[in-house]
Amino acid sequence: MAEHDHSAIKEDMIVVGADGVHIGTVDHLDGERIKLTKADSGDGKHHYLPAGLVAAVEGDTVRLSANAANAVDLFEEAE
Fold it and tell me: Which domain of life is it from (predicted)?
């Protein structure tokens, strides 16, 4: 699998699963993790997704290689 250039991931981009389901909005890239905004989290916490899940960046959308339900299972919380 080709390495993706994560520099294309910018603040306020929409994150969707491979199934097209909305997961969240990018707050910023934190190393190899994508920090999502609190507004989308549903529990008032920031969630992080491993940047390795990114399949493609298309316009203002970050598409993951996992479907939305699987991606939510992979959420990491801030240490």
Answer: Bacteria
